[in-house]
Design goal:
Chain lengths: 483, 244
């Protein structure tokens, strides 16, 4: 019997203007998000290749390894087509040198603030907003609409059980929603192939799981729609309730979770940390100079009242020891500052991680956040992206520093010219550095296995939301007054 | 030989959770080929009785049977033998008349009907041919009521329950509706119809049950009503001028 309802729901949806309009809008938006994602990825890839080429060309003109500016660039990943995540928030590259630490600079949002204001229309955004709204539009009157139209009584005047009806209803609505989803994703997949995005089998696998998660996501809203429809008598009321649920889930919870986590676990700003370190350094240096003054006074106490010659002799005898002593004291001070600085940054890192974990845990009460997290983890554009790159760049910096040391501090050769009155005598032309010798930066590996493992919990959470909403809809309808 | 009733109520009582007594020991029977009109104003208990017969609410006391099956004990079996038409027949506006009929026919267990079968049923209720394949969203209430009646007919059940079927219909549509109903009676269907239209009840009913405040005040046959003014009789019962 449920098949009759499934067929009816499908036929009813396909023939309704509501379905046609919302489906066309969804298909157009999803296809557009695919196109924009591909165009954005290709532009980033081209920029990446050009930047790398320019760096190598500039470096190849140098004769001194120390003078060569080396950068490590973040290579765009095809998964960015589907989910931009924090990709545009973090810098595109970092300079690699012995003096400075790793710092990713020149983010897309920094370069183009308008993009930061209006955000990126990627697939995960469209799924999160459009498909969830579509699911609500399809189901807000699934049960109470039948009652308002008088068809519920007509249906149950037949040999129909409530279980058969609700199963057929849910399946029918689900299949109807699946139709535009499958069409739009097929169009997207064709665009990917047609526009030449190089997707490996692992990428396609991650995309398939992304699509599965999107299905779980809109199914959840569809089930919530039927659930609320089975709890209310009027479709106008259920629509209002569902709209509030949608706003809370999609817009409020993710932002509120971040704010609550910020309140519950305040984290000092980077400026505050730097200020603390500067203050500590100043104090350490003041103490250092005070101790040095004291030391100088003590050193010359034995020769007080003696002649200048005796004093000079005393200095000459002790100078080496004193230098060593001063060096040790200075090193102790530097070490103390470095340790304090490292501790501060580690604390900041740990506090930020705890705050982030709390924010993510709180936001998981919303299916929209759970889906966003799945999408970002599958796409590799989650909050771990920056850390993965920074770690890889730190490794590369070590590798590059060792390489420079091997090159004898980086001197590729200098040219000496001496004038002897009868002309100029020049040393041999200095050799240019061979950039082929330079170690190459390898992007961090974020494989399909890692992506799937990382997203598994949130996929499970989405499944749990589905189960709860299904049970809710089912039980609510079993108690529904058919009159 | 006495015919068995297709629709019967024995001491049917319904007291809601808030203590309101919507039906108070109501008994009646509808035999094959009989139109039984439940006549009463708003709140008389007509719709409550129908809701019990359709299994939407359980009775507090008494038994409601369709084709001798207790609807409360075995609702799915009892519903095999009944068709229903309500006063609000919106149906599915995106479906054509034929598609609506097809859906409800299949729910009623008719899986092998052809397009011609649907057309025959729609012709029988007087729907214009050109409307058969038109979506219901443009239909008038009368046209939708005709499709609703076709749905009730196509199930070919021995019992038909109609809840205020002519309310809101124009005289022509109501007249056409009445003609179809008489045809069904001639076929031997037991028809239970609730109405507050005294004139329609007198014209069509074989038996009229006058209800007020959940009580069945009187049951009058066509023969008994032949020489009586039903309207006056109804008002007398309602105002307690005649002992129930």
């Amino acid at each position: 019997m449920w098949r009759i309802f499934l067929e009816k729901e499908l036929k009813d949806s396909l023939q309704s203007a509501r379905f046609v309009v919302t489906s066309l809008v969804s298909i157009a938006l999803i296809a557009l998000s695919f196109y924009l994602g591909i165009a954005h990825y290709q532009a980033r890839l081209s920029q990446y290749e050009q930047s790398q080429q320019m760096m190598l060309e500039t470096a190849s003109q140098q004769t001194n390894w120390m003078a060569a500016s080396v950068f490590a660039f973040r290579k765009p990943d095809p998964m960015e087509v589907f989910v931009n995540g924090i990709n545009s928030d973090i810098g595109r590259y970092s300079e690699i040198n012995q003096m400075r630490g790793i710092k990713l600079v020149r983010s897309e949002f920094g370069d183009d603030p308008m993009l930061a204001v209006f955000q990126f229309l990627d697939l995960s955004f469209v799924v999160q907003i459009v498909l969830s709204l579509m699911a609500i539009l399809f189901t807000y009157n699934a049960i109470n609409g039948e009652k308002e139209g008088g068809t519920l009584k007509l249906i149950f005047a037949n040999q129909i059980s409530k279980a058969e009806f609700i199963l057929g209803k849910l399946l029918g609505n689900w299949v109807a929603l699946l139709v535009p989803f499958i069409i739009s994703f097929l169009i997207g997949a064709m665009l990917i192939i047609a526009m030449g995005v190089e997707m490996s089998a692992a990428h396609w696998g991650r995309f398939a799981i992304f699509a599965f998660s999107a299905v779980l996501y809109f199914t959840c809203f569809m089930l919530i729609g039927v659930f609320v429809s089975a709890l209310t008598k009027r479709s106008s009321l259920s629509f209002l309730i569902l709209l509030v649920c949608w706003i809370v889930s999609v817009l409020i919870i993710p932002k509120a979770a971040t704010m609550l986590a910020g309140q519950a676990m305040p984290v000092p700003s980077a400026d505050e940390i730097e200020s603390r370190i500067a203050s500590f350094s100043t104090q350490a240096r003041t103490e250092f100079f005070a101790s040095m003054n004291k030391l100088f006074a003590e050193r010359f106490r034995p020769v007080e009242g003696q002649s200048q010659e005796q004093r000079d002799q005393f200095v000459r005898e002790n100078q080496e020891r004193w230098q060593q002593e001063e060096k040790e004291i200075r090193e102790t001070m530097d070490k103390k500052i470095a340790e304090y600085s490292a501790r501060q940054y580690e604390d900041l890192y740990n506090q930020k991680n705890s705050q982030e974990l709390l924010a993510l845990s709180l936001s998981k009460f919303s299916p929209a956040s759970a889906f966003q997290l799945v999408a970002m983890k599958l796409g590799g554009t989650d909050t771990g992206l920056k850390r993965r790159y920074e770690d890889a760049m730190k490794d590369y910096r070590k590798q590059y520093t060792n390489f420079l040391s091997d090159k004898g501090g980086g001197h590729g050769g200098i040219r000496l010219s001496v004038s002897n009155g009868r002309g100029t005598v020049s040393a041999a032309e200095p050799k240019k550095i061979n950039i082929a010798e330079m170690p190459k930066f390898s992007d961090p590996v974020y494989g399909a296995g890692e992506a799937i493992n990382a997203s598994l919990f949130d996929v499970g959470l989405l499944a749990l939301f589905n189960i709860l909403a299904f049970v809710g809809a089912f039980v609510a309808f079993l108690h529904y007054d058919l009159r | 030989m006495e015919q068995h009733a297709t629709i019967s109520a024995e001491g049917l009582t319904k007291i809601y959770e808030d203590g309101v007594c919507a039906l108070d020991h109501v008994s009646f029977a509808v035999k094959p080929g009989e139109i039984f009109c439940l006549l009463g104003g708003n709140g008389a208990g007509k719709t409550t009785a129908i809701n019990i017969f359709l299994g939407f609410i359980p009775p507090s006391q008494g038994v409601a049977k369709i084709h001798n099956v207790d609807i409360h004990r075995d609702p799915l079996e009892a519903k095999k033998y009944v068709s229903y038409l309500s006063d609000v027949v919106m149906l599915y506006p995106n479906f054509t008349a034929r598609q609506n009929l097809d859906f409800f026919a299949r729910l009623g267990g008719k899986h092998a009907l052809t397009r011609d079968d649907y057309y025959t049923a729609l012709r029988r209720v007087g729907l214009q041919e050109k409307a058969f394949e038109q979506k219901l969203k443009g239909f008038s209430k009368g046209m939708r009521q005709k499709v609703g009646l076709a749905i009730a007919i196509i199930k070919e059940s021995p019992a038909i329950i109609l809840d205020e079927p002519t309310s809101g219909l124009d005289p022509k549509a109501a007249n056409e509706f009445q003609t179809t109903l008489l045809g069904l009676r001639a076929q031997g269907k037991a028809i239970l119809m609730s109405t507050h239209d005294i004139f329609r009840a007198k014209e069509i009913a074989d038996t009229v049950g006058i209800m007020n405040e959940g009580k069945m005040l009187a049951i009058k046959s066509r023969k008994e009503l032949e020489h009586e003014d039903l309207e006056q009789l109804y008002l007398n019962y309602i105002h307690g001028k005649v002992a129930a």
